Fold:
Amino acid sequence: MYRHLEHRLAQRLLECLQRRHPGVALPDAVIEQPPKVELGDFAIPIFPFAKPLRSAPLKIAEAIRAEIGQIEGIAEMQVAPPGYLNVRIDRAWMAAALAADQKPPAAIPPGKILVEHSSINPNKAAHIGHLRNAILGDTFVRLLRFAGREVDIQNYIDNTGVQVADVVVGFTHIEKKSRADIEALTRQPRFDYYCWDLYARVSQWYAEDKQNLQARLQTLHAIEDAASDTAAVAELISVAVLRRHLETMDRLDIEYDFLPRESEILHLHFWDTAFAKLKESGVLTFEGEGKNKGCWVMRRAGTGKASSTTEDTGDTEEITEEDQKVIVRSNGTVGYVGKDIAYHMWKFGLLGRDFGYRKFYRYPHTHDCWISSIEGEKDHPHFGDVAEIYNVIDARQSEAQNTVIEALRGLGHNEAADHYTHFSYEMVALTPRCAAELGYTLSEEDKARSYIEVSGRKGFGVKADDLLDQLIASAKKEVDSRHPQVSDPERLQIATQIAIGALRYFMLKYTKQSVIAFDFKEALSFEGETGPYAQYAVVRATSIFRKAGADPETFCKDAGSVGASDLAKNLIGEAANEIWELWLASSKTSYVIDQSIATTEPAYLAKHVFQLAQLFNTFYHRHPILSEPDEKRKQFLLATVAVVRRELIRTLAVMGITVPPVM
RNA sequence: GCGCCCUUAGCUCAGUUGGAUAGAGCGUCUGGCUACGAACCAGAAGGUCGGGAGUUCGAAUCUCUCAGGGCGCACCA
Structure:
């Protein structure tokens, strides 16, 4: 509702000014919130209009106030020095709409959106860095779906790269395991943990003797031949680890629709098709000399002149060696960026080829996750060919991402490039204290740092499942002591919901560009600005209704529970400001979700959820509800609780957080 | 060397398109449970928004500059 009113206000303001001053070019009106509720609900700074209208801000504000006329949902306007127009919402009108859960129609842009996230190398257990990626991506998907968009979720699997090859080397060269041995191991629980340790050992083994790196090269080469035994082993390992990753993410209610794999990009000749187009369009040039002799290269993103300033002749200008990105190596093999270009052409439906598909993993509620395959099943959903994409990939890969975008531009697909968003975020590192707790010896230099980067190669990091286990155990202890009368399975269920709430909120409360310095103490906290804080507010609200013998879901819909006159009586006036703030905050769900999408910043939603919960807790303490003697007043207070509860549950759900019945 | 990002309270971070007195959480100190559950609330202390210059009616926010930190810049992914 808040969003709707804001739009209406902006539109009417513009109309009013245009009527008064026909033909004058005016800046867009900025609508913000006043620092205090006492001042009003919207504040419009009039200063930007002073110059073009050659008049004092206060005078203009006064004129608008007098001439804008009646606006539905707006009660009054006040001019405030030095030049604001403060607008008050018609509180009873807004509250009635909110109580009835009215949703004004919003224009939904057409076209499907593809969100790619997680994309964990299938060679070892997922760690906290991967959790940040998956939680950001999954939350963004939920934001888009809340806004009415159709979304496909993809998780790109690099199953033919060095990382998988390294673990294969570990099994075959260090542990000398047979294919049957490995197959047996993959059936063990948490096979990904086994690989985590083995991967670290392999890195160690390479460091011991550079000759050992020969094994990596041979293995890497053998994997590319789909018929080889090595390829079969790699497939065995990568599929088993991938399955573990899906299980881990499933614990957090994170699901995928499709898992495109690099092996299919290779074997279904996506690259060959892309390569031909890239050569034809001149995006790729062949280097005849220099250090990149024999390679096909393109200009690295962000180097050289902007494409718009180059002459239209399209001559392939010389790219200095420094600015060259090798796409095809001199031995004829294609690198990661090249495969990514082909993949992204496919995403936008620009390649003219498709994957084979088969079912891979079934989520509860009969949702299937599909995986790429060479042959594939006859009937399958249609993937790719989308209007917009978001790639949740950490900030370190921004240059590679931009190179892919530039390749699309070079191919003439500007529209696709414009709808390609690198959803960039910073890594999760460990505080020195946390690293020490994990048993790592730190150099003096490291101790002085504010954070230390995790390293899969060294086996240095916090595994996702371990963190979840710890969170659940910690929450379980609390629930056990608070609710001894509840059955153990139920207590575990509650503890799990709390753990997920804590984890997801923790990963979402930081803005994307902030490096998270991970610390168990903070991550395991259930107090203050945390998920459980918000969950607790809902539990309290639910509890009130339980004791009142009413259903919070239907309370407001039941006709006559709270009449318009009661809303007005309880909401209008200075004394009601505090409760009104709570209603106002509850009205902002769509507004905040729009902002989060437009800025690709889920933290904005997290902040809002916390603020709403905080306002509710304050209200809760100040206003005893069940003991309220005035029955009409009591009904109003209950309606307030019902509305806040509904919006908290809604916004938490967008963050992937559910609320237990008690906690 | 080039490119991107960061520097706000003791610590960890918000601060949306430049707007009214810069905000949270944690920690510290002081209070509040005969309960609509204290995983909570009230209050206190704590800030030259890294330094400097500029643009503007107005700058934590934009520009320039200096200092400090991080991350990229492979025929790796």
